[in-house]
């Protein structure tokens, strides 16, 4: 089964600004980099999603320091980046076409924010026919809300996703398949 690793919104805003600091952000960075290394070891594509605003003054305005992919993430120049303007990584982006062109059958999800862009993109992928996806256990993160702590939000979403929209797996249990040329 051809796979792709999808890293969503691992951007400087969640690391540089204290008011936007992701829950366990250092552990998340390590986990994402471990996934990237595992994927690259078998030539599995690593795709980045970058939330982007084109309105000056808004958070994540294109080409601002906070908008950039976090500098500790092991991104390479050849990794595809898709810019999204909504929570859904598929909405008005070329992500679906890229996945189809590359005959990707399974997506492995990690990144931020659990209840927004990860959840929306995961459910969209499922509706678009990607129904055997993997979400990395504690491989997504978010901020505390007024109702729930970040760890509760993550646990709740992993419980909802597992067995419905994806399989939740630990980093050590993810087995990326070697990418074969077609």
List the uncertain runs: none
**Structural class by helix and strand composition:** alpha/beta
Biggest pleated sheet: 6 strands, parallel
Our count of helices gives 5
Radius of gyration: 15 Å
How are helices and strands ordered from N to C?
Answer: EHHEEHEHEHE
Form type: globular
CATH superfamily: Isochorismatase-like
Number of separate structural domains: 1
Oligomer state equals single chain
- CATH topology name: Rossmann fold
User: Tell me, what is the CATH class?
Assistant: Alpha Beta
Distance between the termini: 12 Å
Strand tally? 6
By CATH, the architecture is named 3-Layer(aba) Sandwich
Average pLDDT for all residues: 96
**Share in β-strands:** 15-25%
Major β-sheet strand ordering: 3-2-1-4-5-6
Care to describe what's here?
By secondary structure, this protein is α/β, with parallel strands linked by helices. It is 30% helix and 19% strand. It has helices at 13-16, 25-41, 95-101, 114-127, 150-161; strands spanning 3-8, 46-51, 81-84, 106-112, 134-141, 167-169. Strand 4, helix 4 and strand 5 (134-141) form a beta-alpha-beta unit. The chain is globular, with a radius of gyration of 15 Å. The protein starts with a strand and ends in a 13-residue tail after the last strand. Belongs to the isochorismatase family. It comes from Paenibacillus kyungheensis. This is Cysteine hydrolase family protein. Keywords: Hydrolase.
Question: Tags for this entry?
Answer:
Isochorismatase-like_hydrls; Rossmann fold; hydrolase activity; 182 residues; Isochorismatase-like_dom; alpha/beta; globular
């Amino acid at each position: 089964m051809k796979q792709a690793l999808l890293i969503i919104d691992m951007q400087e805003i969640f690391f540089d600004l204290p008011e936007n600091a992701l829950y366990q952000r250092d552990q998340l960075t390590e986990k994402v980099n471990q996934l990237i290394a595992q994927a690259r070891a078998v030539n599995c594509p690593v795709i980045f999603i970058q939330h982007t605003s084109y309105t000056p003054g808004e958070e994540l305005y294109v080409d601002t320091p906070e908008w950039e992919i976090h500098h500790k993430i092991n991104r390479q120049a050849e990794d595809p980046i898709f810019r999204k303007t909504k929570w859904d990584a598929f909405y008005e982006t070329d992500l679906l076409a890229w996945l189809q062109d590359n005959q990707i059958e399974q997506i492995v999800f990690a990144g931020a924010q659990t209840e927004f862009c990860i959840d929306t993109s995961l459910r969209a992928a499922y509706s678009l026919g990607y129904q055997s996806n993997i979400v990395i256990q504690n491989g997504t993160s978010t901020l505390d809300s007024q109702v729930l702590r970040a760890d509760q939000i993550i646990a709740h979403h992993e419980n909802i996703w597992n067995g419905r929209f994806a399989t939740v797996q630990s980093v050590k249990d993810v087995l990326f398949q070697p990418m074969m040329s077609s």
